Amino acid sequence: MLTVLDLLNKTTDYFSKKKIESPRLNAELLLASVLECKRLDLYLSFDKPLPEKDIEVYRELIKRRATFEPLQYIIGNVDFFGIQLKVNKHVLIPRPETEILVESILGEIDKSKLYRILDIGTGSGNIAISLALNIPNVEVIAIDISDEAINVAKENAEMNSVSEKITFLNSDILAFEDSALSRISDSNGSKIKYDIVVSNPPYVRFEEYNELQKEIVAFEPQFAVTDFGDGYKFYRTISSLADKIIAENGKVFFEIGKDQHIEIIEILKENSIKNISVIKDYSGISRIIKGERIASINSTCN
Ligand code: GLN
């Protein structure tokens, strides 16, 4: 009979041959998900023989991983900013770098204020949900162009008990004027502007798309990864909409790709965004850019 340790050793060898990164970790995480235990609990049951039915389920998961399907899609969930989120092939897998984006926003929050937030390209809802959970007074509008993604995000909001604070909307920021987003008004009929606009948009240049990891190219939604252009399409569009969507003295926060900060600083400046600063990620890559839409002195004069 095969024990936990036998299975882990065999699977690790198999994944190594298939050139799966971190083969042992992958073998352990998949087995832990079959046995519904913590990865480290496996270490206490190395000698335990496993029933054939568990081995069968494990084999199926191993086969999927060997095709480079991301571990997170196979397991079906991911930890993000201390919460659990469901993920599937319709949404980008939340990355640890995006936690820095959330943190940088939370670092600027005045707890006594009400914040209106717009999250562009919400995907699994990771950003919208973690902000809704950590800001006491908040109304979030989270948009995406995919109904399937919105369904996942809604489920995640429910799972984390923040559904009342977030409105999910199918809207395309690249077609803002025709979108449901552009029609949102307050009780006086004035168009809503947001105190915080946040986005982790698709920023990979189309020419570089095929060089990404197999897991991404073969499994993650293509439109969530690349803008099919030079990688700056969303930064340009969102920045050019600043006057329409960012409240006076409101802020914009972007996650950005490696070496994109120089160009994006220019884009923001061209659109009168001030107080621009850049935050690095754990590997020293400029990863977050933020700026403010400062009220112009003449804005109340005609
Ligand atoms: N907002 C989601 C995230 O940050 C999805 C982003 C996207 O699909 N580009 O992970």
Spell out the blueprint of helices and strands.
Layout lengths: L3 H14 L5 H13 L16 H15 L4 H5 L1 E4 L2 E4 L9 H11 L8 E6 L5 H9 L3 E7 L2 H13 L6 E5 L23 E6 L6 H4 L4 H6 L2 H4 L7 H8 L1 H4 E10 L5 H10 L3 E7 L5 E8 L9
Parallel strand pairs: 3-4, 3-6, 4-5, 6-7
Antiparallel strand pairs: 1-2, 7-9, 8-9
Helix pairs in contact: 1-2, 1-3, 2-3, 5-6
Bound molecules: glutamine.
**Mean pLDDT metric:** 96
Strand order of the largest sheet: 5-4-3-6-7-9-8
Find the structural class using helix and strand composition: alpha/beta
Q: Please compute the radius of gyration using only Cα atoms.
A: 22 Å
Report on the structure:
- The structure is a single chain.
- This protein has 302 residues and is α/β, with parallel strands linked by helices.
- It is 38% helix and 19% strand.
- The protein contains 13 helices and nine strands.
- It has helices spanning 4-17, 23-35, 52-66, 71-75, 96-106, 126-134, 147-159, 206-209, 214-219, 222-225, 233-240, 242-245, 261-270, and strands at 77-80, 83-86, 115-120, 138-144, 166-170, 194-199, 246-255, 274-280, 286-293.
- It has a seven-stranded mixed β-sheet, with helices on both faces. A two-stranded antiparallel ribbon has the order 1-2.
- The termini are far apart.
- Residues 92, 94, 98, 121-123, 126-127, 200-202, 224 line the site of glutamine.
Can you summarize this structure?
By secondary structure, this protein is an alpha/beta fold. 38% of the residues lie in helices and 19% in strands. Glutamine (GLN) binds at residues 92, 94, 98, 121-123, 126-127, 200-202, 224.
